[in-house]
Amino acid sequence: MAASSVRTGRLLALAAAAAVAIAYPIPLQLGGYTYFQTVGFLVLLNAMLGVGWNVIGGWAGQFDFGPQVFLAIGAYTAVVLFIHLGLSPWLGMLAGIALAAVVCALVTYPLTRLRGHYFAIATVAIWMIAQPIGATWEFINGSRGLFVPMKPAAGALDALVTLQFAGARKGLAYYYVGLALLALTLYGAWVVERSKLGFYFRAIRDDQEGAEGIGIDSRLYKVIARSVTAAVYGAAGVLYAFWALAVFPEQVLDLNWSVLPMMATVVGGIGRLWGPVLGAVILIPISQIMSTTLGTGPLAGRGVDLIVYGLIIIVIAAVRPTGLLSLPWGRWLRLSPAPSAPASDIGSRSGDVAARSGDVGPRSGDVASRP
Amino acid sequence: MAALLELEAATKRFGGLTANKDVSIRIDTGEIVGLIGPNGAGKTTLFNCITGYMHPDAGRIVFDGVDVSRTGPHTICHLGVARTWQVVRTFGRMTVLENVVCGALARTNRMAEAEARARRLLTFTGLGGKEAMRAANLTLADKKRLEIARALATQPRLLLLDEAMSGLTPFETAMAVDLVRRIHAELGLTLCIVEHVMEVVMPLSHRVVVLDYGVKIAEGAPADVVRNELVIKAYLGEHYRDRR
């Protein structure tokens, strides 16, 4: 039936995307192009952050410019626990997630009386408060930052437990850890999207008064939405800190931790599960490739990548504000004129296409779910 | 009969303007009460106070024995009061079904149960077959019906309809009147309706309350209210007297 073929198509699309993602770093490893594994890792990290940002920004509809605060909390928590107690970064990640979510709930609750631009400004204010704290708090070494002590791993398993990968396989290992965390984040977001939480977040985005009238505590659910975002940022912060082997306040509190995932989300499709992933796949390599190719030339370090980002955002905002995923991929790829066909029909077609062309899989698969 | 909702001298001021002044209204279980009055009489303000979007500056609002004068809208919804809006507040980017599921989730955390109830109510309100449409793409009449379905999904005992029939064609209005009657008869809800179309509100209501400049100027059976001199002067107009 139509519905089940949509489902099959989407599952095949997902499998194809997963296969491409899993296979990507292997030829690079064999050919010695490990730099592109790092680019892949940064794509995955920003995709993960985008999926997290999408919860508060896309579903709940409250633009958030300050989630990097929770990335910093996650990073510092795990690194401090690793330095002082020798705790595995994975346990540190759980602690970081918990602390990020709790701090987020406490600081966000007063902000939830605000909405729209005012909420966004308040999230910036929280971030500005966090900066001097990070730069002056002696316990976390202030602006001198913390370094992750290198402990030579006693084997592959030990390296995985302590998240300490060195040498030629570092890029490969972090790529797969990032991929696993992104998959976990996507699965979590998928569950939330279909749950009461997902429905309530979107109701608040569409009409806050209307939502309150049907029994939704808008302040509570805004806090929950932002805490989910904070939890994802906390986890990503741990990953980033152990990859970078250091935590500096100006680094983990960089505004780009919210702006890049936000741009990725808007380009790919705001409020769509796979939107941030598509956006990150497009945007992140641009800045990496630019900074490499411009090298030490006259344009190096002038923020040319930001100019390109700006142009992309302008084009998207003018032509397709709902993002690339909202384009009728299924119809285009199949080249079938079916604008008036029933929704399930379109879905099944794009599902078929998705099954055949692996690298566009998740995109058309998602279109299939939202005809 | 037991009073389901009781307003005791409720007063709401906006700066120097008194939108509701010492309004006392009692709505009994099983009634359909019409709330009428000229534009700016304070009808919507009264709805906003009852549903917790505003709080009265003086007086009390008691629903089913609970003082809700200072209670927020989501809590009042859980107590059993639902409302619709003069300017519709459907969730435009969600589908028709998702809109009603959101309402049903007020009483359950199980998605399957919420969806089943939502589908039943969409059939009941005549929106069956439009489940997958985006709410923003509905006609005004369907949006208003969707709001009613969404409100019903929260399983209220009292339903407040704020101009559910304004802007509708005569045929759509007749359908809406039929829906209100079925909500009362089949679902057993108590209703309070704000309406400007006298041909709708008079036959529908058991009792009519008239507001003017925030003050209750008349209350009683529809047949009595339309003969009330104050009401004719303030709201109905002289031509209404001639028509009778």
Second CATH tier, the architecture of the largest domain in chain B:
3-Layer(aba) Sandwich
Taken in chain order, the helices and strands of chain A follow as: HHHHHHEHHHHHEHHHHHHH
Which regions of chain B are unreliable across 5 or more consecutive residues at pLDDT < 50? none
**Helix fraction of chain B by DSSP (H/I, runs of at least 4):** 25-40%
N-to-C span of chain A? 17 Å
Over the alpha carbons, how many angstroms does the gyration radius of chain B reach?
Answer: 18 Å
Q: Fill in the CATH topology of the largest domain in chain B.
A: Rossmann fold
Number of E-type strands of chain A:
2
Morphology call of chain B: globular
Q: Please report the two chains with the greatest interface, counting residues with C-beta closer than 8 angstroms to the partner's C-beta.
A: A-B, 22 and 30 residues
Which structural class matches the secondary elements of chain A? mainly alpha
What is the mean predicted local confidence, pLDDT of chain A? Answer: 85
Principal-axes geometry of chain A comes out as: globular
Radius of gyration of chain A: 21 Å
- Number of helical segments of chain B? 10
Average of pLDDT of chain B = 92
Strand content of chain A: under 5%
Task: Please give a structural write-up.
The complex is a heterodimer of chains A (371) and B (244). By secondary structure, chain A is an all-alpha fold. Chain A has a domain at 33-255. Helix content of chain A is 73%, strand content 1%. Chain A has a two-stranded antiparallel sheet. Chain A is globular and about 60 Å long. The two termini of chain A are 17 Å apart. The model of chain A is unreliable at 340-371 (pLDDT under 50). Chain B has 244 residues and is α/β, with parallel strands linked by helices. Chain B has helices spanning 43-50, 73-79, 96-104, 111-124, 140-153, 170-186, 198-204, 222-225, 229-236, 238-243, and strands at 3-14, 17-28, 32-36, 58-63, 66-67, 81-83, 158-162, 190-194, 207-212, 215-220. The longest helix of chain B has 17 residues, at 170-186. At the A-B interface, helix 9 and helix 10 of A face helix 2, helix 3 and helix 5 of B.
